[in-house]
Amino acid sequence: MDVRDLIIAIRDGRTVPADAMRDVAGGIADGRVTDAQAGAFAMATLLKGLSTEARVALTEGMRDSGDVMRWDLPGPVLDKHSTGGIGDCVSLLLAPILAALGVFNPMISGRGLGHTGGTLDKLEAIPGLRTVVDETRLHEIVRQTGCAIVSATGNLAPADRRLYAIRDVTGTVESVDLITASILSKKLAAGLDALVLDVKVGTGAFMETPEDARVLARSLVSTANGAGCATSALITDMNEPLASAAGNAVEVAVCMDAFESPDPESRLVSVTLDLIADLLVLAGVYEHVDVARAAAFQVLQDGSAADRFGRMVSDLGGPRDFMESWRTHLPRSPVRVDVPSVADGRVQSINGRAIGNTVVRLGGGRLRDGDQIDPAVGLTELVPIGASVSAGDPVAVVHAANYDAAHLAVDAVQAAYRVGSEPVEQGALVLDRLRP
User: Fold this and answer.
1) Burial (Cβ within 10 Å: 0-12, 13-18, ≥19) of residue 433
2) What is the 8-class DSSP label of residue 125?
3) Please, which residues have CB within 8 angstroms of residue 154's CB and are 6 or more apart in sequence?
4) Per-residue pLDDT tens for 63-76?
5) 124 burial via Cβ count (<10 Å: 0-12, 13-18, 19+)
6) Is 416 left (phi over 0), alpha (psi -120 to 50) or beta?
C-alpha cells in the first residue's frame, strides 16, 4: 500500500493491512516516508486510532527497523517498564533483585521526561558510572552479573526515534496507539521473554485518571502479547511521590537505605516486590505471586540483591567499593533548607507534578534538550499523605545549589502540599492488574 493510501485509510477509519503498517515503520526509519507524511500518519492515528492488529504490526515494524537483541543465557530474559512518576526509583531495586533470583535483566532505560525523573540520570549520579555501552559489553555484563541498566544503542528502534521527534512538533504525542508502539518497540527490541508494565496514575503521572491509565495499560498488554512477548501490567498510584525523595543522587540514597534495611511496607519496596512477583509468575519461574514476592524480599533482605547492584555499578565504571562507602561517593548539595508546613493538620494531598517540576527547576532535570543536570539537588524527607504535621514542622528538605534556588523551591513545595483537618483515607497502592 502506498503511504498516501495508508494515511487516507487510517483517516477514513478503514482496515489497514498489517504489512502496510510494518512497511510504514521501515519507511520512517530509512527516510522513504517524508516528514510531512509521517506527521500526517501520526495525526490520522491520533484522531481515528488503530485496530489491535494494526497497532501490533506497527510495533513489530518499529522494533524490526533496527537491531533486535538475541540472548543465549541459562534463564529467562525479563524486564519492566514504568510510564513515569515522582520518586520512582524502582528500577534500581528491581534489576538486582531479579539478577539475585537467577534471571536476567538487560534494562534499556531513559532519561528524565518532563516533570518525571529518569533512571539513567539517577544512576549517573554515581561518580564514574556511565550507562552508554556497546552491545558486546552489555551481553558480557548481563551474563556475568545478571543485570545492566543502560541507554539505548544508536540502532535500537530508529523508527521510534524519528517518529517521536515528529510527534513532538505536530501535537500528536498523546496518541495511545503511538505511545504504545514507542514504548514497546524499544523494549521488545531487547529480546525479552516477558515484560511487566507499571502504568502510573495520579497527580505525578502522565495519566491523571484511572480510566486513562486503564486504556493505556490495555493497549500495552494486548500489543505486547500480540507481538509475542508475555506481558502484564499493574496500575499503581502516583498521587504522591513513591519514595521519600525526588531527585537523582537523593533517590539513589533511598535505594541504598532499602538495600541496607528493607521495609516491605514502604511504598517503594512494596511496588517493586509486586512488579517482580507478577513478572516471575508470568515467566513461569514461580507458580504463585505470594511465593515469588517472598523470594524477592528474601534476596533483598539477605544482601544478595545489594551485591548484584554493587557489581553492576562496578561493571558500568562506578566505584568498586560503592556499596560499602556510598555515603562518601554520592554528591551532596551545598545548601539544605527545611520546608515548613503552613498549617496544622494532616497532609490531605500532594501535587506530584509540582514536586517533579520543582526538582527540574532546581537543576535536577532538563528544561530543554541538552541541559546539564546537577545530580546533587532534589527533595528529601517528603512527608506522605495522611501524616500529622504542625505549622512550622518540615514537610520536606530542599537540596539546592544556592539559597535563591532553595527559597524558590520552598515556596513551590509549600504550594504543592495541602494540609487540613479532615480525616484522610489511604488509597490502595496497586489499583488494578491486567494479565494476558
Assistant:
1) middle
2) T
3) none
4) 999 999 999 999 99
5) buried
6) alpha
Which cell is 253 given? 540514597
Residue 224 is inside which H or E element, if any? helix 210-226
* The pLDDT of residue 427 is above 90: no
Residues 258 and 255: their CA atoms lie apart, in Å, by 5
Q: Evaluate if residue 367 carries a pLDDT over 90.
A: no
> How confident is the model over 191-242, as pLDDT tens digits?
999 999 999 999 999 898 999 999 999 999 999 999 999 999 999 999 999 9
In this predicted model, what pLDDT tens digit does every residue of 153-172 receive, in sequence order? Answer: 778 899 999 999 999 889 99
Residues serving a catalytic function are 79-82, 119, 167, 182, 186-187
Q: What is the pLDDT of residue 155?
A: 87
Q: Between helices 304-315 and 249-260, what is the axis angle to 10°?
A: 150
| Residue recorded with cell 493491512 | 17
Task: For residues 381-406, give the mean pLDDT.
Answer: 98
Q: What's the pLDDT at 110?
A: 85
Instruction: Determine the residue type at 231.
Output: T
Inter-CA distances, 114 with 205, 356, 358, Å = 10, 8, 11
Nearest to 145 by CA among 304, 302, 325: 304
- Taking alpha carbons only, the member of 136, 98, 104 closest to residue 299 is 98
Mean pLDDT of 368-391: 93
Three-state SS annotation for 39-89 = HHHHHHHHHHCCCHHHHHHHHHHHHCCCCCCCCCCCCCEEEEEECCCCCCC
| Residue 232 CB coordination number (10 Å) | 22
3-state secondary structure of 178: helix
pLDDT tens sequence across 298-341 = 999 999 999 999 999 999 999 999 999 999 999 999 999 999 99
**Cell numbers found for residue 30:** 530509512
